[in-house]
């Protein structure tokens, strides 16, 4: 199944006077790049979180935001640093006296200074935290994957449509190519006839010129390979594994064959068809950049 690398997921759990919120968003990236922002107290759980995410997400830049709120006053302790508070107070008094300004030191002012009052959370049993956190984490991952699958389904349909259009144009080139040779043969005869009498025309020489033209301008092999690449794209889209990188390689090969056909062609219709093919290939390439 084709999955986009763009998505969003959210999970929430409330239990035992705590709430756990997990939000994650992903965008396209060459590899699997996971960034987790969470309370420092839970940093030891990061590897478990990564493993859970990577079970279902294999590629993309994924940003995860974890918020834990507690409603139990026993879980939080406020610590007052008396020594630091005294030092701040004495320092403010000196400043007031030195510059002869009003001394309006207040409790709220001192309390706002760094580390005068610090919040200390009760040490958590990380195994118990993981049991709780794992539920909204999986919920968020599932929501993210579901959104990526929906976006991937749209890409799947659109790429299939574009491949069908390319196939039609390749078929038209295949149909037109022999006519170009016949037209060239006819033009050679006409030019020679203008210069020489019928008895002087060397048919073997003309046949050789036409053969050289065919050898230089034949796009039969390129058409076969281009059709093969189109089929490879369609088959790859139906694989159940991540296919983004494989598709990117196939599309590069498609573009190479299209360029070769263009360089060999002198017929205006074929040249225009190739330009349209290259335009479709470029659109597919852009879409593939967002496929996992």
Automatic annotation (TrEMBL):
Endoribonuclease YicC-like C-terminal domain: residues covered: 173-292
Source organism superkingdom: Bacteria
Cofactor(s) demanded: a divalent metal cation
GO molecular function, one term: RNA endonuclease activity
Domain called Endoribonuclease YicC-like N-terminal: residue spans: 2-156
Classification via InterPro entries: YicC-like_C, YicC-like_N, YicC/YloC-like
A matching Pfam family: YicC-like_C
Keywords from the UniProt entry: Endonuclease, Hydrolase, Nuclease
PANTHER family named in the record: UPF0701 PROTEIN YICC
NCBIfam families the record matches: YicC/YloC family endoribonuclease (TIGR00255)
Annotated family: Belongs to the YicC/YloC family.
Stated name of the protein: YicC family protein
